[in-house]
Specification:
The chain is α+β, with helices and mostly antiparallel strands and about 425 residues long. The protein folds into two domains: about 1-50 and about 105-275 and about 310-425, Outer membrane efflux proteins (OEP) (Up-down Bundle); about 65-100 and about 280-305, no CATH class. It has helices at about 1-10, 15-25, 30-50, 105-170, 180-215, 240-250, 250-270, 320-385, 390-425; strands spanning about 15, 55-65, 70-75, 80-85, 85-105, 220-225, 275-290, 300-310. The protein has a four-stranded antiparallel beta sheet. The chain has a two-stranded parallel sheet with strand order 1-6. A hairpin with a 2-residue loop joins strand 3 (about 70-75) and strand 4 (about 80-85). The two termini are about 40 Å apart.
């Protein structure tokens, strides 16, 4: 059984924690958030373009045909008739039109609002990258602990097989009882089944991690142990220090602050409907009856115009007032969202700091507990080999060691996850940049 389980892992693909973190920041949810940011970034250029000069050039060709015409006039009492032959009149015109906005408060603040929305979406995208990275770290350690648990269970099954063999040998030598040998055989079968069931958990953890990273879920990933895994982490910052760092570093707070600025700009955008607007328009054109001279000889048949247009809507049926009030309420909502986010971040810092402190305490306790359990098994194993104990005592010691090793492994992973969660709460997980 053990060889069969290991054969699956030998064909797997090793993956490190750094690789997982880098790939997670480019997974589907992170990419979707980044695309939203890119759209808002291009929207800034769109509003900026409306304030820049607008230049249009054009060319037109017009043709008119007249049939033969006859005209009769009276001159000194005599009717004089004249005929005009059929003719064709051509008119070619080349021109350019330049429009420049001089005063348009609404457009200026629309550009300002677009820039603030771009900053907000950028912050949301960075926060989503952090969230994706944290989830990938969690899934990495789920896989790592599942692998470690499988190894512990396989080692336990191996020791159970040795105990069974030893119990059989003692029974055949007349130094043991058949019940001990049978009990050892049952324990071995139980440990084999535990390892088989744990292998199912490993396969599921592999699929979950691969799916989050955008890899084929058929990839049999093997989590490589990080260098600092299992070591006691350095002391974390105080709550005051962590909260101050979060106010500077958390992308979500920057995003919601930018949303407040955008909402305030929107108030001016709506109020600007009743502000005067001033535009400058310049036009130059050249007419010709011949196609060949339409593009030169600008000294003749050429004209130019320059106009300044002032538009001022004095009353619009109170719609501007209603839109302004609506924008003010949106600003209040944005401020409320920011305040709630600040409280949420403070709560996350408090809970993650406490969780990290408790997990470090548990790590110290379980490290000592695992050492004691190992000595306990060694003691009863020696007594059993000497015929002074039975398989029940050894089995009890094996179970205690198994529980101690599994608990220690899980707590070591919990410490790593707690550190990552604290960094995420503070906004320092990757500082908003891809590793």
């Amino acid at each position: 059984m053990t060889g069969l389980v290991l054969s699956v892992l030998v064909a797997a693909t090793p993956i490190t924690l750094n690789e997982v973190r880098a790939e997670a920041r480019n997974n589907l949810t992170a990419i979707q958030a980044e695309l939203t940011w890119i759209e808002s970034y291009e929207n800034v250029a769109n509003f900026r373009g409306a304030l820049l000069p607008q230049l249009f050039v054009g060319y037109s060709a017009a043709f008119a045909w007249n049939t033969e015409t006859r005209r009769t006039v009276l001159f000194s009492g005599n009717a004089i008739t004249s005929n005009s032959p059929p003719n064709q009149i051509n008119n070619y015109q080349v021109g350019a039109n330049l429009t420049q906005t001089i005063v348009n408060v609404a457009q200026w603040f629309q550009l300002k609002q677009a820039g603030e929305l771009e900053r907000a979406n950028k912050g949301l995208a960075q926060d989503q990258e952090d969230a994706s990275e944290l989830e990938a770290i969690r899934r990495f350690y789920v896989l790592f602990t599942a692998q470690g648990s499988l190894d512990v269970l396989e080692q336990t099954a191996k020791k159970s097989k040795q105990l069974w063999d030893r119990a059989e040998a003692l029974y055949e030598a007349g130094k043991g009882i058949k019940g001990d040998a049978l009990a050892a055989q049952v324990n071995y079968g139980t440990d084999q089944n535990n390892a088989i069931q744990q292998h199912i958990a490993v396969v599921q953890a592999q699929a979950d991690l691969a799916a989050w990273l955008g890899r084929p879920e058929t990839d049999e990933l093997v989590a490589v142990q990080p260098k600092a895994f299992g070591q006691t982490p350095p002391p974390p910052p105080s709550y005051t220090e962590a909260a101050a760092t979060a106010k500077q570093q958390r992308a979500i707070l920057r995003a919601y602050a930018a949303q407040i600025d955008a909402a305030q700009s929107n108030i001016t955008v709506q109020q600007a409907n009743l502000f005067p607007r001033l535009n400058l328009t310049g036009q130059i054109f050249h007419n010709s009856n011949d196609f060949g001279t339409a593009f030169y000889q600008w000294g003749i048949n050429t004209g130019a115009t320059l106009s300044v247009n002032l538009n001022w809507q004095i009353f619009d049926g109170m719609s501007t007032f209603a839109l302004s009030r609506q924008a003010e309420e949106q600003t209040r909502a944005a401020k409320a969202t920011y305040s709630q986010s600040e409280r949420d971040v403070d709560g996350q810092i408090r809970t993650t700091l406490n969780a990290l402190a408790d997990q470090v305490k548990a790590l110290d306790v379980l490290t000592a507990n695992r050492a004691a359990a190992a000595k306990n098994l060694e003691y009863f194993q020696e007594r059993f080999n000497a015929g002074a104990s039975n398989t029940l005592d050894v089995r009890d010691a094996q179970v205690k060691l198994l529980s101690a090793e599994l608990n220690l492994l899980q707590t070591q992973a919990n410490v790593e996850n707690a550190q990552a969660s604290l960094a995420r709460a503070m906004g320092t997980l990757s500082n908003g940049a891809k590793p």
